[in-house]
Amino acid sequence: MCFLRKEALSLFLSGSLLFGFGSVSGQVNVTGGQTALALAQKLAGPGITIQNPSLTCPTVANGFFNIVSSNLGIDSGIILTTGRAATSGSIYGANGPASVNASVNNGAAGDPQLNTLANASTTNACILEFDMVPKGDTVKFEYVFGSEEYNTSTCGIYNDAFAFFISGPGISGQQNMALVPGTNIPVTVNTINNGIPGSQGGNISNCTSMGAGSPFTQYYVDNNGGTSITYRGFTKVLKAIHAVTPCNTYHLKMTIADAGNALFDSGVFIKAGSLKTTTFTVTSHGLVSSSASSPYIVKGCGQGNFIVKRAAALATAQTVKYQIGGTAVNGVDYTPIADSVVIPANDTQATVIINPLVTPSSGNRDVKIFVISPYSCNGLEIVDSATLTIYDALQTKIMNGDTTICNGSSFQVNVAGDPSYSYSWSPVVGLSNSNIQNPMAGPTQATTYVLTTSWPGSGCAPKVDSFHVAVNPQPSVTVSADQTLCENGDFNLNVSVTPAANYGIQWNGPNGFSSTQDNIDFTNAQTNASGAYVVTVLSSGCVPIKDSVSIKVNAVPGAPTVVTPIAVCFNGELPVYSVSGTNHLWYSGPTGGTGSTDAPKPPTNATGSYTYYVSETNGSCEGPRSAIDVVVTHCCEDYLFVPSAFSPNGDGRNDVFRVTKGPDDKLVQINIFNRWGQLIFSRSEGADWDGTFGGQPVEVGDYFYDILVGCARGKLIERKGEVTVIR
């Protein structure tokens, strides 16, 4: 690590805090504090067995990482750092914006093995080491190294250091696998960077002195302005690789440490599952079709092959053995092949040719190859397999099958087959193109289409296939009219389809009603049968046609509640009827007749009794009738008489002021006032005024009365007026 005065760092950190950096964006998730076994197992891929893992590292300095969105180049894996691996709130680790500083001193010891690489003593080491048993002749893994030293301390006198030390059979001592591609130069801040010396004592000679070609700018990623990784720079994805002897035990030490002081931090990201050994694969090659589960070849016309690959080239040729299986017989269904293939020196693959032989038709046959690992640590080990199918004829199939369409419509023909084949359809009528694999078809009448498939230049016989298209006319649909009826009534649903063949019917309606009949009678319908009845007419190949019938079932009202009898005064006003409900019809009799919406008007110029009948309607539905009796009779007013004058002179005629009323009525109160408003007489029932006040005859003239009469039927009548006293 390039030396940086603490005063300068303190100023840098204070400025960062003043600007109030927020929380991490969450583009890189880091889970810190993992165990040695968990970290080692996270790295191990195919062909590697992990043993005896150990970890010498502060808990906060290691962890798993998983990428959501980042420019790191690796999706997941483990991270080893000289500071913090995971960001926690405002305390930053490796996952955060590059504008912040994740520097932290964990107080851990250094790694003496890294002192030479760092050109300084080291501190805060994080070391993961374990034994491994590779099943192949090469081990490799992918990684990215990043550091806060980039830009400010580039080309400094020392750098944070890291290494991947491997040791074991055939390896002299411990060798560092973290090398610049194609060189023996270790990966450091001074060997991979942007070529610009840092502002804190950087000198380009410190970079160029690392070896020929240093600094290697082509492997550098400038992360200034980055939002997911706090390191201001990091390498592109690099690969650590080393030759090994299969099935032997090797030791791998992954180590990183601060150099010089514990200020700026560094970290190494190692891809999950990328610690692998040499692997062998086999793939089959021939024609490919959506109807075939594997590549295929055809008897008598063309050949296929298997390609056996190894992960890296060797300086010498290598023989790879395989087992031959499948339903096809070696030497009978195809030209005989050996049980091994030789991968040439400095190459990575070899080809096994499969030439199918022309034999009597026997159905499809499979050729399978099972590759045996040349480095089987525990006996015979199959590492990969592949299948090649041999067909008797060209492999095509019309996937649609026989089809029915509606006149005027079209559909996509779907043929499973190789696109390198030639396709010819007959007849051409109704096809968008008769010379393509999957034309659009829209015939106007029933047609059988014949497909002829050929493979130009292959020598294969053409294959003929066909399918039939039936054409149904577009149906015309007529349904019954909308209906309104009364409760307990009947209604009918009817649908008429033209032409009257090749169709299906589906009715759906209220209360889960469903039917496939074209004519349906309903009896004693209740109000819950109201609603829309939808009919769907299905004709094969045609778009379903829908129509509907609206049914409304009205409830029949009950007999109205009425007030009866109603008394009407002789020569009085017409009666006011009290009838429950609305929409009434009036009748003169209990049955029959024509109802009127106008209430009846009984004659009031003569006393008598009348009976009328009323019903309630709901739409066209009418309920039972209720009777109302109307009685025309003399009322309280008819009997009431108040004289306008009287002569209290003792002659026996009109000597008193007497109010005449009905026989069942009651004189509640009578008050007499003089012209000055003085009450001079006040009596109730049974009293007549004799024209005196205080025992003395009143003067001749006009007086005022206020009379209150209680009628027999409960009504009170008040009369006011003048009476003249004559002597």
UniProtKB/TrEMBL annotation:
Residues 557-633 form the Ig-like domain. It comes from the Bacteria. InterPro entries: CalX-like_sf (IPR038081), Choice_anch_L (IPR049804), Ig-like_fold (IPR013783), Ig_7 (IPR044023), T9SS_type_B (IPR026341). SUPFAM superfamilies: CalX-like. Pfam families: CHU_C (PF13585), Ig_7 (PF19081). This is Ig-like domain-containing protein. It comes from Taibaiella soli.
